[in-house]
Amino acid sequence: MSTATATRRAPSSSLTSFVVASRYLPVYIAIVLLIVVAAIWAPAALRAPSLRAIAPFGTFLAIAALGQMLVIMTGGIDLSVPGSITLGAVLVVGVGDASDDRVWAAIGVALLAVALVGLVNGILIGGLGLNALIVTLAVGQIVNGIALRYYTSVAIQTPVPTGLSEWASSRFLGVTRTFWVGVVLTLVLIVIFRFTTPGRRFQVVGANPVASHIAGLRVNLNQVAAYVVAALCYGVAAILLAAFLKTPSISLGVPYLLGPIAAVVIGGASLTGGLASPLSTWAGAFFLAGLNQMMRVMGLSTALQFVVFGLVIVGGMLVSGDRIIRGVEQVLRERRGDGETSVVGATDGGSG
Amino acid sequence: MHRIRIIGVVAVLALVFAACGGDDGGGTAEPTGDAEASAAGTELSEYGESVDADPALVEKALGPVEDVPDIVLAAIARADQDLDQATIDTAMECWNSVECDTGSGGELIMGVADGGRGNVWRQVTHMEAILQALTYPEIGTIISRDAQWDEDPAVAEADIRFLIQAGADFIIGYPDQGTNIAAAILEAEAAGIPYIPYSAGYVGLPGDEGALIPGEDYTAIVGEDLCALGESFADIVNAEAAPGPVGIMGGTPGNALSAGWQRCFQPALDDSHPRVGPAADTYWVNDFALQTVLGWLSTDPDITAYAYEYADGMYTALDAYEQLDVPVEDITIVVRTDEQTLFCDWVDRNEPSYRIFFSAGGNFQSRVAVTAAMLTLQDYEVPAEIIVPHVMREVTDSNCDPNRVTETVSGTSMVPDEVLATMYPEG
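YS: structure for the whole thing
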């Protein structure tokens, strides 16, 4: 194929942007649908107090999902999230020892410990090339065991330092401060992916690790870094969660096994790596939090809530980013009458 | 054969004890003069048990109740212990370990199969069972398994099967998974290992599909009359709570304790107290209780009453009011357990229109299960349902003891403070 032909057949920049952006559309459509359904069957779920109730738990899920998103962008998956969140939370309690003088020490130790978990995951997966699913599951179990031991011996049903819990309960612009932490984190990731070289490189390596390796990029280091930074996100979620709950329990990490993955998938990320959007992931997390709230308002039983939640995840997979892209490509092919145009894997405008 | 020999040894020990230890027919906390009860007490003494429990201790555990079954009294009598440091050390070793040697040289193995041990209530209940076991020199080994509230019933079943393989002579515990672990329980009973759950942990409520029948399918059950408990809750809500919606919370989905009281609570509510929604499953995890109340309160700030088993979970759930700027006023709470956290928080709030009524923590019911199992091994015919009487009490300032080792422990727990201080050194 000549250069001229390639140029003629390549989609325009705006078209590429449209196609890439289309993968993130489902989550926003889902949110609109959720609002419509809630307005009809559970209008109380849309009132201000209800939204205020969603804000903190949506934020915790969103921050954990942002971490999971980084891992998924490398083509991996992290099942150690519940263990990391539990460990971080019990360390905040244990090291904090209900003393405001120890708040920063508690936060530091919690972040350090979960970063170490991420480093172990990263080395085993990025360094040694082990299977991410198995490794993170196993590491998660080990971390759970450590957290359980620490919890039962030191931190059981002990409150976090008062200063930290008061901060988490206080509000800024009428919304819990934890929400704003999530917003800032999301914005930081958007800026990094859109406007910095390391951010763009991170996406490129995830989208095509083989080509990146040939191009001289350090793919393994990228993976290790992804797990460490992801773990730091879990650590932040753990600290905020502990602060919000005041007396975190050993089970507080349990909802964060599938929730973050669901948020990332619904947010349109490519499970094969590369493309993902922090904003859409954030939206995916709040969609799930809103869905939970609506189901409670509608008075669904626990069993039915599980079913609906599962169906939504399946639905998210059905309209996942990759399928959307393939659908758009198909339409483009039919219009152009050829089968060569492909924008899957394009990174231009891919994030944010 | 081995088991028969052990039972023989236990029986001889019991007879020697009975011969040396007098024949106090014992009574109840509130002496009834009931000749039948006295006869039963005498009968129990032949098995090495005394029903002469300190009335003050009975009231601490149960409140001002009457007609306490003799097995319950026998368990409480044994709980009246002066613990030396060596015993506390052994208890702590057992509490911290999957398997421990009690140091008594006894041949019996006690198995504990708990669905979860992730909160203080469960841990204290475990310790109650251990301390009770240490009063029986025949028990030489304690093996404790914890399914960590795993949603997969296979985990809890595996724990019971592990205990069968380990040679447990009896198994106590709380079957969070209900009928889902029935097969393993039947295997234990088929192997001649008595299974006695506590805290009204029926393996399926009687009459439910797949439910096992205590006294037939498994040895016995220890717990309150759940229907009566639910009706007691409803009586208080009907009489004391302002008209308005009622929030109902339970533990793990399908567990018998929650289902049992809720089944009688809901029909007994009057028309002025509709449910805010279906009973919510909180897994007895404080975070989930908070999320539940946040969800309810955000759409229905006029909830006037809550019914729940777990006082400490309710304590965390009340944070929802602060989160949503709803004042904690005109609320009536009925709970089963009596963790100090909720009660001390109530004292701090000093809000006359906020009232709490409670039954009893029930930690000590694991002690009753141990005693019932030891009696069973001696061929004493324990009742299929060992009903622990309950009475509802309103929380007052006296229910908050600021000197308690840790606020999260139930006031009705019979674990001595020196043990609690070792269990929870951070307070």
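YS: worth flagging: Chain B touches chain A through 42 residues (CB under 8 Å).
IM: good catch. Also The radius of gyration of chain B is 21 Å.
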